[in-house]
């Protein structure tokens, strides 16, 4: 148990913080501790978690991507237009189009990074500006509210009335999120490619000498994030029931903060799906709790920012020193 | 003759090649495309637009040279501007005197510096990644600003504030004078002072710098503090130019400052890069934007072209290194 805690220190400390915050919120507010609220939380966080697991793969492979949220906006817009051309479509064609457009944009990043040896942050800041500039230029910033019916209809996969009269429901975004999380987990922990991604992120030169195809790693990592960005973009359009060109602008930094909070290391080779999901959830739970406590929504970001800042400070100053019980026996 | 050329070459440095070429290319392309481009009006509009982006880029430059990043620059500028606005409003608003303005500016500098000090301390003492630290500071400051202003803007300043934003002295815009003074200040700081030397050393190799007896923590805290003060200057100029303060003003500049630094030949991992090439890169970006404006395109297309320009320069750099390598190989 102790070794499990030590190898998964970030996940456990995140879990501990979430438990503490949830306990406090359960006593402080009437509605926090309910299944209905828990499912609301999942519904709200679904898109961010989809983005987050995609970004996680890129971070594990030692890269960073700033452009994915804007790429998702481009995918939303293009997908809706293509769907108009082919006369409606459905979930299958929508996800296929969005997914492949996303992969395409992700592979463009990978191409620049691998072929021309551009550092990933430089390449993705460029593509961020290119995608966003072109999107705003061609759309003139006009939103699309006239979406196909199937895309805007709420899909409720499971609903149940609680004894107190509230409804709990699992909607499509949560299902898609679960599939994306499971698929990413499979990819990075249960396949050879996943192990190669970790190795590549930890030590690119070592990985190359070991016979790992570096180009393939870049295309898989950025392509996977592109796929997640595409799917997340479509789900966001479904959830918001509109396509606004600059709605996702700025989301990339929030998701990045959550993923790194979840233990992924900027620089590669480290990070887990569980930690990443917990990172996003911690931020959502905090916002949701503040909301229920009647704190002004204007103060949310301030408090969330302060919490992340404190969390980084604490997590980088030796967890063992703060938790004497766990630290005993390490001999340091 | 050759020695003079050599001296000019070393003075300009290899970083100058990219922005210098881009500068000539932009002048040529737009000079041919539009007869009005090479006119006083174009350069006048560039002179007024340059300082806003330029001051923020200077604030970004120092942390990048140490191998970090300061993502909080735009919101630090906003909060500093807000401080000045608050001091002015509490002390007579439109009737406030010059003395009050100076006190307000000093407080704004202190607020900017405070944000830098906090980031610097966390980065220096916990070794947390600067991207994450500055990101959480950004989220915190954005929240703080939204909380204080409720998302609205604050205006109503004394009449003498306006000319700081759009007045001219001897035909040179005041913001440009402020900006050029800051550029020279940074140039001297990086080239002639101990802190400048330490900044480059830390960016090249933090460990080695630490072991060679340099107080790296002090240097890092100072770098982020100066970055914060530069944000405050940008915030004051923005207040004067828009005659109002609004949280989110200049938010879209955030990633463009990073782009400008990389375009100016700054190494993304730190340690290498100089102020003057970055200045030229900024002029190129603004000229591009003005040129496209003359042709009839809008700001968003300019953003896309900025991204394409950065990719182009990076690809050219890759081609140049390939050619150099093949020459070396043939020579041996």
TrEMBL record, chain A:
Q: Which UniProt keywords apply?
A: Cell inner membrane, Cell membrane, Membrane, Transmembrane, Transmembrane helix, Transport
**UniProt cross-references to InterPro entries, sorted A to Z:** ABC_transp_permease (IPR001851)
Q: Under what name is this protein listed?
A: Putative permease component of ABC transporter
Task: Report the transmembrane regions from the record.
Answer: 12-35, 41-61, 68-86, 92-111, 118-138, 170-189, 210-235, 255-283, 295-314
Q: What is its main location?
A: membrane
Concerning CDD domains, the annotation shows: TM_PBP1_transp_AraH_like
Compartmental location = Cell membrane
Q: Does the keyword Isomerase apply?
A: no
What superkingdom does the record give?
Bacteria
Membrane topology per record: Multi-pass membrane protein
Return one GO MF term: transmembrane transporter activity
Organism equals Sinorhizobium fredii (strain USDA 257)
Q: List, alphabetically, the Pfam families matched.
A: BPD_transp_2
Q: Which GO terms describe its cellular component?
A: plasma membrane
User: Does the record's keyword annotation contain Iron-sulfur?
Assistant: no
UniProtKB/TrEMBL annotation, chain B:
The upper taxonomy is: Bacteria, Pseudomonadati, Pseudomonadota, Alphaproteobacteria, Hyphomicrobiales
Question: What InterPro entries does the entry give?
Answer: ABC_transp_permease
Note whether Cell inner membrane occurs among the keywords: yes
Record's Pfam families?
Answer: BPD_transp_2 (PF02653)
Q: Which UniProt keywords apply?
A: Cell inner membrane, Cell membrane, Membrane, Transmembrane, Transmembrane helix, Transport
| GO cellular component labels | plasma membrane
Protein name as it appears in the record = Ribose transport system permease protein RbsC
Q: Where in the cell is it found?
A: Cell membrane
